Amino acid sequence: MAIRLEDKKQIVSEVNEAATSALSAVLADYRGVSVADLTSLRKSARENGVFLRVVRNTLLKRAVASTDYECLNPVLSGPTILAFSMEDPGAAARVLKDFAKGNDKFEIKALSIGGKLLGADQLDALASLPTYDQAVSMLMSVMLAPVTKLARTFNEVPTKVTRAVAAVRDQKQAA
Predict the structure, then answer these.
(1) Distance CA 85, CA 8 (A)
(2) According to DSSP H, which parts of the chain are helical?
(3) Which of 23, 57, 145, 174 could join 76 in a cystine, given CB atoms 3.0 to 4.6 angstroms apart?
(4) Pairing between β-strand 107-113 and β-strand 81-85 as defined by DSSP bridges
(5) CB 23: neighbour CB atoms within 10 A?
(6) Residue 85, Cβ density class (10 Å: 0-12 exposed, 13-18 middle, ≥19 buried)
């Protein structure tokens, strides 16, 4: 189906706007995936703050020109679905990885983060990145550990004194 020039310009501007504010991108080949499965993928993407779009490769090349995702151009061939992570870097990778587990025909082509093109084998590394909330909680637990250990150490001194006094008392009572 032919797309009018105005529609093409709108698609390019939407994808370009998403690319300028995205934290990471994942490309996949969706050949052989049913429409119902793609609908569930879109729903999952919306819930996780992922910009998901099927775009013609020529329009995608124009949209990512002069952005960090220009490195994706060599991989653009065949039917391509594009996912941009908008809130945390691993969101798109997690959504597409979970979807690919249930669909054998869905194939991850490549991913990009920080202007670098990565192979599909790096998907697990990107998907395992913690979310913002998880990273903050990990940082807080690391910061809290020394304080907790110090408090336990300070608390141990009076406990040892009490045990020693109790042991002396028990020894005198026994004698």
Answers:
(1) 23
(2) 5-21, 35-47, 57-64, 91-102, 123-127, 132-174
(3) 57
(4) unpaired
(5) 17
(6) buried
Q: What is the pLDDT of residues 125-153, one digit of tens each?
A: 888 778 888 888 888 988 988 888 888 88
Q: At what angle do helices 91-102 and 35-47 cross, to 10 degrees?
A: 150
Least confident interval from 52-56, 115-119, 129-133, 140-144:
129-133
pTM above 0.85, yes or no: no
The predicted pLDDT at position 95 comes to: 92
120, burial (CB in 10 Å: exposed 0-12, middle 13-18, buried 19+): middle
Block residue for tokens 């032919």: 2
Tokens coding 148: 């907790």
Whether residue 118 is predicted with pLDDT greater than 90 in this model: the reply is no
